[in-house]
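so my prof wants the structure for this chain in the tokens format not the other one, which i didnt know existed until like an hour ago. anyway here's the sequence
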Amino acid sequence: MNKGIFTLTGLLMCSLLFSQTSHHQILPNKTNHSPTAKLADSDGDGIMDDNDRDDDNDGIPDALECPRQFYWTGPLTFSATNNKVATGTINGVNFTYTSSHPLEATGNLYGIGNFPASYGVPNNNPTIKNTQVTTNTLTFASPMTDPVLVFASIGSSVISVPIVFSNPIEIIWASGLIVNSPTQITGREGNVIVRIPGVYTSISFNYTAAESYANFTFGATLPLPCDYDGDGIPNSLDLDSDNDGCLDALEGDENVLSSQLVTAGGTITVGSGSIAPNNNICASSTCVDSQGIPLLVNPGGIADVGSDQGQGLGSSQNINACNSCYKPGALSGTALDTKVGITALGRAGNTADNWPMVRKGGWMALESKTKGFVLNRVPFNGSGNPIGILPADFIEGMTVYDTTNNCLKIYTTKDNGTTYGWHCISIQTCPDV
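here's what i got, hopefully its the right format
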């Protein structure tokens, strides 16, 4: 690796002049898991949630489905009396960084361009430089929520460097990395952003092999709201994040088709109120990469767009954004007459017009240039029934406009006749039967 050199002597002369500044940015990330929930594999793909960048296998990384606000340290101040200690500030909380080896530094973060700009990884001068086997500890002046560690250029093409953490980590973003366990990663010219979920006064990690050098920098996160449809399931575990009846896997911004979906594994679901099936892209370990992203939407995948890992949000958090569905009319076979019609154009009984039979293939024809078709408008009570219509008069297929919930409703069954009820019609579909 051809990395520049920034001497410790020069650093000690100038580092005390750097102010401790704090930078924050809203960035995408995973949901916050408590330290007791490390072994969950919600989507059944063999990768624990805390190491799985897509906990529901809809192809949209959790980092996009559940955004977080990140706070990054500014330039560190190296101690003038202890060459193994530096201090800094993250979101107003002072911290002390201690290494088992005398500190070195660079004037920037090596390969900063390798990190997606959306994460806002700081490019501070100075930035910690590490070349040796070291034990590294961060101690916070007050409890820190979800501390974040950034490692740039771990190892090289010929040197594998493991890093062992004091607590289980979550991978936010990575390249050139192997996840060995919830507390160990190995890099070969690797770059990674990790979070240690929980609240801590101290965390540590061991850099277990010497190399040319790697850079370290630090931050923390705070969660933003992560349940778009309010059904009690975070977006990263919700197959229909906006409850519009359209699966997130299909609403993402790549070319996933319904025919490519499977029955979801594990415990993930669309949530209450959604009419969508419990389907996603992958339900086993054979169809995801090492970070839990379905191969279908990765570079080389059949549905991939842009040769990047996973797919974007698309319209998965945009209610009623399902693509409209129109099937072409039948162009072969016998065209059937429409036998019933209502018209405001004087066509009924006009032999020359042959109306409504001339409108082929319908159950009923409605025609007007200036008149609207108005359904019965009725309020609904707390039991979900229309006020003024007796239950004894409910007939399957009866349709009214619910003025209480502002939707068109039909009285029908959703479980093959076991139960009947009034259901909103809000999503266009294309039934084949």
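also thought this was worth mentioning. Confidence is low (pLDDT under 50) at residues 4-38.
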